[in-house]
Specification:
The chain is α+β, with helices and mostly antiparallel strands. It is built from 15 helices and 13 strands. The strands form 2 sheets. Strands 3-4-5-7-6-11-12-10-9-8 form a 10-stranded antiparallel sheet. Strands 1-2-13 form a 3-stranded mixed sheet. Strand 11 and strand 12 form a beta hairpin. Keywords: Carbohydrate metabolism, Cytoplasm, Galactose metabolism, Nucleotidyltransferase, Transferase.
Length: 491
C-alpha cells in the first residue's frame, strides 16, 4: 500500500466534501501523519477521482493494523477512525457559534448544518445504517414501520475478552453525559473524539443537543441534561418538551417513561429523543374526543392506536402544560382493577410516555398511558410483550416503538429466512420459538416463492402490532373503550 497516496487522496476527498480548506491542508496532513505514527511523507498528486471518503478511511485503518499501530480489535479501529475524522470537525465552540449564526436565519438551517457535519465526520454511521432492513406495512391502524437493526456490529470473541479484562471506570459517568464530547473511548466505552454537542438552555437550565450515531429515523436527535440525574417525568418534563419544539418547530420530541419495563434502555440520565421523522402514531385517527372539566379550551382526543394515547392541543404552552400535568397526576394514582390497572403496590406503576410537536399555530402533546406491573401470568409485565410474541420482540417498548416504528433484533434477519424456507417446504433450520407462529400464518393462505416475502413482511408487522397491543393499558375493544372513558371522565 502506498500510504502517501492514500493520505493524499483522503485529504482530497475531504476537500471535495467541504471538510477541509487549502489553508489547513498541511496542518491536518501532519496531524494525520502523527496519528499513523509516520514521520515521512512523499508528495504526490491526488487521483483524478480519489474515491469514496470512507473507503479511503478504511485503507488508513488497514495500514495502522498492518503496521502494528493498533490491533484488529473493533474498539481500537473505532478509536482511530474517530480520531482521524475529528481532525476535520470544528471545535465545539466554533461549531456552536456557527450553529447560532444559522439559527438566526432559521432553526432548520441550523439543524441541517449540524446534521451534515455529524454525517461528514462519520459520527453518524451512515454506511452501517444502510445495512438496516426497513419497510412499511399497512394495518388497521395505518402503516407501521418495521426495521431490523443490523447497523451495530456483533462483538467478536477477542473484543469480548478485552472488555472483560478492562477495568470499569467512572469517567465519563454514562454514555449520555457531556463528558463524552471528544473522549477517546476504550474497549468498554465507544469512541467519541469526533462527537459534538450543541449547547441549549431549557427553563434556565443547561442542556445539550446531539445526534444519535446509530439513528433509527431521520435526524434522530438526543436532548440531554448537563447534570447527570435519573430520568424523571414531572411538570418540568412537559415544559421542556414544549420548550424544545418552540426552539425547533420542525422537530418532534418525546421522553421515554421513567419506570423499568415501560422505560427506555437508559434510565440513569435525564434525556429526550426527537427529530424530523413523521411517525405512524402522528397520523392516527381519533377514536373519540372529550372535554376536560378544568380545561374546556383544550382540544382533547383519544387516538385509535394500539397503545392508549391522549392527545392535547392548544395555542398556549402554559395552558397545555397545566392540562398535561393534570392528566399525568390523575393517571399516576388511577386504579381500575377490572382493567388490571393498579397504580401502586410496594412501588409506583403508572407513568406516561409524552411526545410534543408544533402543528401550525398550535402546540400538541401526546400522552401515552403506561403501567409496569407484573403478575404470575405475565412476569415480564402485564403491559409488555407477552410470551407468545417474544420470538419477535421481548425488549422494552420505548418511545420510538410506541410511535409505530419497530426496532427488531439482528437475529431475525437469518431466522426469518428460515421461516420462509419452512413455508416453501425447503430445507430449514427454523427455530422452535417461531414454529407455532409460522404454522398459524401458513394455515391462513397459500404461500409461494412469488408471494413469500410479502407474506413474511405482513406477518411480522401484524406480530409487531400484537406487541404494541400488549403494551396498551386500555385495549381497542368495546370493553376497552368503556374502561378508557371511565378514566377520561375523571379528567
Amino acid at each position: 500500500m502506498d500510504i502517501s497516496q492514500v493520505i493524499t487522496d483522503f485529504l482530497a476527498a475531504n476537500k471535495q466534501a467541504g471538510n477541509l480548506t487549502e489553508a489547513d491542508e498541511i496542518y491536518i496532513r501532519n496531524r494525520l501523519l502523527a496519528l499513523l505514527a509516520l514521520s515521512d511523507y512523499e508528495n504526490c498528486m491526488p487521483a483524478e477521482e480519489p474515491g469514496p471518503l470512507l473507503q479511503l478511511l478504511d485503507k488508513l485503518i488497514e495500514f495502522a493494523v498492518q503496521s502494528g499501530i493498533i490491533s484488529a480489535i473493533d474498539s481500537e479501529k473505532e478509536q482511530l477512525e474517530s480520531a482521524i475524522m475529528d481532525l476535520f470537525v470544528p471545535l465545539p465552540s466554533e461549531l456552536n457559534q456557527e450553529f447560532q449564526r444559522r439559527y438566526a436565519q432559521s432553526p432548520q438551517q441550523a439543524t441541517d448544518y449540524f446534521h451534515e457535519w455529524s454525517k461528514a465526520s462519520n459520527y453518524i454511521k451512515t454506511r452501517e445504517l444502510a445495512r438496516n432492513i426497513r419497510y412499511q406495512t399497512a394495518t388497521n391502524y395505518g402503516d407501521l414501520e418495521i426495521t431490523i437493526n443490523l447497523a451495530k456490529p456483533e462483538k467478536d470473541p477477542k473484543q469480548i475478552a478485552l472488555e472483560k479484562n478492562t477495568p470499569t471506570g467512572n469517567y465519563p459517568t454514562c454514555l449520555l453525559c457531556m463528558e463524552n464530547e471528544g473522549y477517546l473511548g476504550n474497549s468498554k466505552h465507544p469512541a467519541r473524539t469526533n462527537h459534538r454537542i450543541i449547547q441549549l438552555e431549557l427553563a434556565g437550565e443547561p442542556w445539550g443537543f446531539q445526534f444519535s450515531p446509530y439513528a433509527y429515523y431521520e435526524e434522530h436527535s438526543i436532548f440531554l441534561a448537563k447534570e447527570h440525574r435519573p430520568m424523571q417525568i414531572n411538570r418540568k418534563t412537559f415544559a421542556n418538551l414544549l420548550g424544545i419544539v418552540e426552539q425547533f418547530p420542525h422537530y418532534f420530541v418525546g421522553s421515554n417513561a421513567d419506570l423499568p419495563i415501560v422505560g427506555g434502555s437508559i434510565l440513569t440520565h435525564d434525556h429526550y429523543q426527537g427529530g424530523a421523522h413523521n411517525f405512524p402514531m402522528e397520523q392516527a385517527e381519533v377514536w373519540y374526543s372529550f372535554v376536560m372539566t378544568d380545561f374546556p379550551e383544550i382540544e382533547a382526543e383519544v387516538l385509535h392506536w394500539p397503545l392508549s394515547v391522549i392527545r392535547l392541543r392548544h395555542k398556549k404552552k402554559d395552558i397545555l402544560i397545566d392540562a398535561a400535568v393534570h392528566v399525568f397526576n390523575t393517571w399516576k394514582s388511577y386504579n381500575d382493577e377490572s382493567a388490571s390497572i393498579i397504580a401502586e403496590t410496594d412501588q409506583p406503576h403508572n407513568t406516561v410516555t409524552p411526545i410534543a410537536r408544533q402543528k401550525a399555530d398550535d402546540y400538541e402533546l401526546d400522552i401515552v398511558l403506561r403501567n409496569n406491573r407484573t403478575s404470575a401470568e405475565f412476569p415480564d409485565g402485564i403491559f409488555h410483550p407477552h410470551p407468545n410474541v417474544q420470538h419477535i420482540k421481548k425488549e422494552n417498548i420505548g418511545l420510538i416503538e410506541v410511535m409505530g416504528l419497530a426496532i427488531l433484533p439482528a437475529r431475525l434477519k437469518e431466522e426469518l429466512e428460515e421461516v420462509r424456507a419452512y413455508w416453501l417446504n425447503k430445507p430449514s433450520n427454523i427455530k422452535a420459538i417461531h414454529l407455532d407462529w409460522a404454522d398459524t400464518v401458513k394455515a391462513k393462505q397459500t404461500i409461494t416463492e412469488a408471494n413469500s416475502q410479502d407474506v413474511l413482511k405482513q406477518a411480522v408487522a401484524e406480530r409487531f402490532l400484537e406487541v404494541l397491543t400488549d403494551a396498551g393499558v386500555f385495549k381497542q375493544t368495546t370493553a376497552g373503550k368503556v374502561a378508557f372513558q371511565r378514566f377520561t371522565t375523571t379528567l
